[in-house]
Amino acid sequence: MNFHLIGVNHLSAPLALRERLVVSEEQLPQAVQTLVQQPGVEEGMVLSTCNRVELLTSTRQGADLRGFLRSYFGLSSEALDSHLYEYEHREAVRHVFRVASSLDSMVVGEPQILGQVKEAYAVARSLGAISSSLEALLSRAFAVAKRVRTETAIGSSTVSIASVAVDLAEKIFGSLEHTTIYLVGAGKMAELAARHLIARGAKRIIISNRTHQRAVELADVFGGEAVPFDRLYQAADHADIILTSTGASEPLFRREHGETLRSRRKNRPVFFVDIAVPRNVAPEVNKLDGLFVYDIDDLQSVATNNSAERQKEAERAEKIIELEVDRFASRMKSLEVVPTILSLQEYCETIRQAEVDRIRGRLGTISPEQEAAIEAMTRGIINKLLHTPITTLKSSAAHPEAATIHEMIRRIFNLNLNSGKSKE
């Protein structure tokens, strides 16, 4: 297993760094193609969400993923390296299984991450960046995530970053019944937030999005009001809570917007809940009186409190993960002996064919029955001779001495696995 994973997440890196590492949906294909062009990288995938950016690869010796990250995002080793985590082989498998199963999420049990992993996989696969090794790993990861969902109650309550944001809004106001909520962005996160807001009693929802038709559609579903994006700031005057979740690369709300908003609100407070990465609300807005900004890292304390209820189920899920890591490792080990077995069989078959051809010339004319008898006899001899070495190869796959046994058999039979053909 030559798996290699490197990345940052909400635990290892502050938001100020994570937002510099974001790979947008439009940039993702180019990032994947650049990754797999790196020396030593055979297969690769890039996962970029609001809480993590990770490179998952199958590599040869010499791959420099840290160097790739520094170069691609224009960061120094001082700025980046101390925040990176890096896993190889079995540990990389465990991490992928945990991420897909939402055990490594800010909100443990949230369902969105599996969909995000599948989307990243689909992009890489469509580009030909995923083949045998990562295909096997990710296919198993999806199955493991399904098993965790089926056999534990980790996802029994609806949890997500959006729901945690709504929890925070409710803590601030006590009740949402008399508040006006402004959703800036009409993507999946905004839709989830709208559902939670309605469930918690919110009566008025305003929605603005760059693609106005999408805002109209979402407003129709939830009985809200759609506002054209060119009226973004005027509509903000009416909102008590502004929840932002757009893919903008620069803040939409800066200090000057906050000062205008504070003036028009006549000292009535406004709470920004910014769940976008990069941030939609500049940090300096939080310094203005009456304006309170909570970003995605501020939601972590709320998420931690909520996750305590799911801790027992998470422990059960971790046991499933360990079992599945063992099974996957054993399967991959068993696959490693296949080239040796095939090369050994090819080597012996070449010798058998040569000897049959040589003796056939001495026997003269033989009947079809005699020809079949010679074939059966020689194949039987070869199969009996190969039975012990092949059985030993298969049974040794899970043991530490497997590499030694493989090398010994290759030397005894003079096998050349690089060419796929035996040496003469």
**What spatial order of strands do you see in the largest sheet?**
7-6-5-8-9-10
CATH class of the largest domain: Alpha Beta
Q: Briefly note the structural class of the backbone.
A: alpha/beta
**What would the principal axes of the Cα set say about the shape?**
elongated
**Which percent range describes the beta-strand content?**
5-15%
Largest sheet: 6 strands, parallel
The tally of beta strands, per DSSP, is 10
Q: At the fourth CATH level, what is the homologous superfamily of the largest domain?
A: Glutamyl-tRNA reductase, N-terminal domain
Task: Report on the architecture of this protein.
This protein has helices at residues 15-18, 28-36, 65-73, 77-80, 89-100, 112-126, 132-151, 161-173, 188-199, 212-222, 232-236, 255-265, 299-307, 311-336, 338-363, 368-396, 402-412; strands spanning 3-9, 41-48, 52-59, 85-88, 180-184, 204-208, 225-227, 241-244, 270-274, 291-294. By secondary structure, it is an alpha/beta fold. The protein has three domains: 3-157, Beta Polymerase, domain 2, CATH 3.30.460.30; 162-301, Rossmann fold (3-Layer(aba) Sandwich), CATH 3.40.50.720; 333-412, no CATH class. The strands form two sheets. It has a six-stranded parallel beta sheet. It has a four-stranded antiparallel beta sheet with strand order 2-3-1-4. Helix 10 links the parallel strand 6 and strand 7. It is elongated. The model is unreliable at 419-424 (pLDDT under 50).
